[in-house]
């Protein structure tokens, strides 16, 4: 695969290096279709803002199939995300004109986002 877009050559070289690197090979980390999708979308003339839309469209059938399986499973009562909220229990609203630059301590969530 070659072309006038230099990103193709860079992507091919990155793939070649990754496929020979013990770190990636031992963890079974291989470039997949999404590795090249941005280059393909660009070659098709799609605006960058449409890349996520194309990503979603390509997966809609799979998402719908997964949803249908969930709905048809009589033992599946509710879907709950496996996440734990670690923010403040209660935060008081601070009007925009009273907030200091960078956010007031009472409006900041601790830890990395």
Note down, in words, how this protein is organized:
With 113 residues, the protein is mainly alpha-helical. The protein has a domain at 6-72. 47% of the residues lie in helices and 0% in strands. It is built from 4 helices and no strands. The mean pLDDT is 84.
* Assembly classification: single chain
Mean pLDDT comes to 84
Order of helices and strands: HHHH
Give the strand tally.
Answer: 0
Number of helical segments with 4 or more residues: 4
Short synopsis of the structure:
The chain has 113 residues and is mainly α. It has four helices and no strands.
What order do the helices and strands come in, and which of them pair?
Blueprint: H1 6-20, H2 22-26, H3 33-43, H4 51-72
Distinctive features:
single chain; 113 residues; mainly alpha; 47% helix
């Amino acid at each position: 695969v070659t072309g006038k877009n230099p990103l193709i050559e860079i992507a091919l070289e990155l793939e070649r290096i990754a496929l020979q690197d013990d770190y990636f090979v031992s963890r079974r980390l291989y470039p997949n279709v999404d590795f090249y999708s941005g280059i393909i979308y660009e070659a098709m003339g799609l605006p960058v803002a449409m890349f996520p839309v194309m990503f979603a469209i390509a997966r809609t059938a799979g998402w719908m199939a997964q949803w249908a399986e969930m709905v048809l499973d009589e033992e599946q009562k509710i879907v709950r995300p496996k996440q734990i909220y670690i923010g403040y229990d209660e935060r008081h609203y601070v009007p925009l004109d009273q907030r200091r630059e960078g956010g007031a301590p009472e409006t900041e969530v601790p830890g990395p986002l």
